[in-house]
Amino acid sequence: MTTVLLTGASGYIGKHIALQLLEAGYTVRASVRSNAKADEVVAALTAHLSDATAMSRLTFVHLDLTSDDGWTAALEGIDVLLHTASPFSVDKVKDENVLIRPAVDGLARPARGQGCRSDARRRDLVERGHSGSRGAGWSRHFR
């Protein structure tokens, strides 16, 4: 069974990806920032899953793009990392680094994680900006 760590699972894109992964039979370890966000994901997915038992393949980890805490444990036993987490603000941001720096640092954190297999780290990191392109790493696991 392929296990996927999906960062940003409570986001719009993340919820859709989680739904597709569960429907396809994958095990999903979803990262969220809080229990409230996990509850939000569960409610959204439960309403749309064709098989409610798929929820048994969904677990949650609490991760923060601005902290190294928890990344190594979250990556343990992962076959694929889908990284969709990124800072978001509905308000106009005056300093672009308020969003860019955490996004860049957040992308580097899972790549440095000690629990991720070295070949998976190189091959299967799919960043949100390129997830629609279905590159080689994507197609190997998601057909």
Task: Explain what you see.
The protein has about 140 residues and is α/β, with parallel strands linked by helices. It has one domain (about 5-135): 3-Layer(aba) Sandwich (Rossmann fold), CATH 3.40.50. The chain has six helices and five strands. The chain has a five-stranded parallel sheet with strand order 3-2-1-4-5, sandwiched between helices. Strand 1 (about 5), helix 1 (about 10-25) and strand 2 (about 25-30) form a beta-alpha-beta unit.
Quick description:
This protein is an alpha/beta fold. 40% of the residues lie in helices and 16% in strands.
CATH superfamily label: NAD(P)-binding Rossmann-like Domain
Strand order of the largest sheet: 3-2-1-4-5
Mean pLDDT: 80
User: What can be said about the biggest beta sheet?
Assistant: 5 strands, parallel
**String of helices and strands:** EHEHEHEHHEH
Name of the top-level CATH class = Alpha Beta
- Count of individual beta strands: 5
Q: Pairing-aware structural class of the strands and helices?
A: alpha/beta
Helical fraction: 25-40%
The radius of gyration computed from the alpha-carbon positions, rounded to a whole number of angstroms, is 15 Å
Q: What is the fold-level CATH name, i.e. the topology?
A: Rossmann fold
Q: Poorly predicted ranges (pLDDT <50, ≥5 residues)?
A: 120-143
Percent strand equals 15-25%
Distance between the termini: 15 Å
- Give the CA-based shape: globular
The DSSP helix count reads 6
- Whole-number count of domains: 1
CATH architecture: 3-Layer(aba) Sandwich
